[in-house]
């Protein structure tokens, strides 16, 4: 828990204790001056104050959670630790291999057979598809075909990268 939240809870507790003391004092006074209605009023007010204090402590705790979540949305500046990964990808640009594209994009469906996708390595499922000719396979991979989305949802893939991924799947499904 953050310092702000702890402080908030402490303040809440302190107010709570003060309120409890007030209530006890009032109960004691009840025996002295018997102003029962007054006692009830003060008890209610004291309880409300205690609840308000507890709620404000919670609000402070909430705020500190927001604070902790914040870094996720912050900008990643060049030179920052978080920017290192981006630089790495940029540095290794150039066409990705069919293996890479398959592994990062196509495997989502083609490793599991999700949505009826022919699985990598399933020769029986691939043979009739390969039988249509590679041009049809490429076209279906690029433009989409039934449950197969255009470019297999890899929007930053070049046509050649998609074709390489098709080759990779066909090669490994004989
Ligand atoms: C969202 C799931 C999904 C993703 C991601 C996906 N595919 Fe598919 N793919 C399918 C489905 C479903 C089919 C079967 C479509 C049919 O035959 O009705 C299919 C079929 C294919 C076929 C055979 C087409 C034919 O003519 O029989 C090829 C080739 C193919 N996908 C390539 C790829 C490539 C390359 C990628 C990655 C760049 C990829 N797919 C990513 C779901 C997916």
Can you put this structure into words, describing what you see?
The chain has 174 residues and is an all-alpha fold. The chain has 2 domains: 69 residues; 77 residues, Cytochrome Bc1 Complex, Chain D, domain 2 (Orthogonal Bundle). 68% of the residues lie in helices and 0% in strands. The chain is built from 7 helices and no strands. Helix 1 runs antiparallel to helix 2 and helix 6 crosses helix 7. The protein starts with a helix and ends with a helix. The chain binds heme C. Heme C (HEC) binds next to helix 4, helix 6 and helix 7.
Q: Which structural traits does this protein have?
A:
174 residues, mainly alpha, Cytochrome Bc1 Complex, Chain D, domain 2, 2 domains, 68% helix, rod-shaped, binds heme C
Task: Give a quick precis of the structure.
By secondary structure, the chain is mainly alpha-helical.
**Biggest sheet features:** none
What oligomeric state best describes the polypeptide chains here? Answer: single chain
Q: Which whole number gives the mean pLDDT?
A: 82
CATH superfamily of the largest domain: Cytochrome c-like domain
Please indicate the count of domains: 2
The helical percent reads 55-70%
- In sequence order, what are the helices and strands, one letter per element? HHHHHHH
Shape: rod-shaped
The CATH topology assignment of the largest domain is: Cytochrome Bc1 Complex, Chain D, domain 2
Taking all Cα atoms into account, the compactness measure Rg is 33 Å
The CATH class assignment of the largest domain is Mainly Alpha
Q: Any guess at the CATH architecture of the largest domain?
A: Orthogonal Bundle
Distance between the termini: 57 Å
The computed structural class is mainly alpha
Q: Which cofactors or ions or other ligands sit in this model?
A: heme C
Low-confidence stretches: none
What percentage of the residues does DSSP assign to strands (E)?
Answer: under 5%
* Beta-strand segment tally: 0
Number of helices: 7
